[in-house]
Each structure stands twice: as C-alpha cells, then as structure tokens.
C-alpha cells in the first residue's frame, strides 16, 4: 500500500518532534523536524520504498538517528550547496593557481 509522503510525515510528526527536542537538549537548536525528515529519506531509508514502510519501521529509523550523524549530514549538504553557488570559472581558477599568466 502506497501512502503519500505528506501523510507519512503527518503520521510521524510527533516522533520527529521528540527527536528534535532530544537534539536541542544537546545544544543543537538550529535542527528542525524537516532536517530530520530529509535525513531519514536521504540516508536511513535510501534503499527502501519509504511509502510502503510500516509505522514502527519509520519510528525506529527516526529514533535511531544520532545527533552527530544528523549534523554531519547537514554540514556536508550545506558545503555542497555553497560550493555550487561559489563555483569559479576556468579562467578564475587559472588566475588563482597561476597568477603570473
């Protein structure tokens, strides 16, 4: 049975909220429920059909996340995004690495 992502999110929203509160307890106040949800989709359940998972499997995946795993994921995602935004042209890179030309 396929359940839309919006319904899945609604079903596990309280679990996400609890996980975020746990992470906030450790001092990482910028983490949101959406961050946890995206991490689960991208990493925890990446090889699974998320829409066919049972509620207990979703809960287990969410509650099994460590704060360090989530922070690493967010940092890497942010670095990749900032690298794309600040990409230099070939001429700019050449000038940077060989300014005498």
Question: Would you kindly provide a written description of the structure presented here, covering whatever features stand out?
Answer:
The chain is mainly α and 101 residues long. The protein has one domain. It contains six helices and no strands. α2 crosses α3. The longest helix is centred in the last third of the chain and has 19 residues.
Give the topology.
Layout: H1 5-11, H2 13-25, H3 33-44, H4 55-63, H5 67-85, H6 90-97
Helix pairs in contact: 2-3
Estimate the global geometry from the Cα principal axes: elongated
- Biggest beta-sheet profile: none
Structural class: mainly alpha
Quaternary form: single chain
SS field, number of helical segments = 6
Which spans have pLDDT < 50 for at least 5 consecutive residues? none
What are the secondary-structure elements, in order, as H or E? Answer: HHHHHH
Radius of gyration: 19 Å
The residue-averaged pLDDT reads 85
* Strand percent estimate: under 5%
Count of DSSP strands: 0
């Amino acid at each position: 049975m396929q359940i839309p992502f919006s319904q899945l999110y609604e079903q596990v929203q309280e679990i996400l909220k609890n996980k975020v509160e746990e992470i906030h307890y450790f001092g990482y106040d910028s983490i949101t429920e959406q961050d946890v949800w995206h991490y689960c989709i991208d990493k925890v359940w990446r090889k699974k059909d998320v829409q066919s998972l049972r509620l207990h499997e979703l809960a287990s995946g969410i509650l099994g996340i460590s704060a360090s795993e989530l922070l690493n994921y967010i940092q890497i995602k942010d670095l990749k995004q900032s690298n794309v935004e600040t990409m230099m042209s070939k001429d700019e890179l050449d000038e940077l690495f060989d300014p005498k030309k």
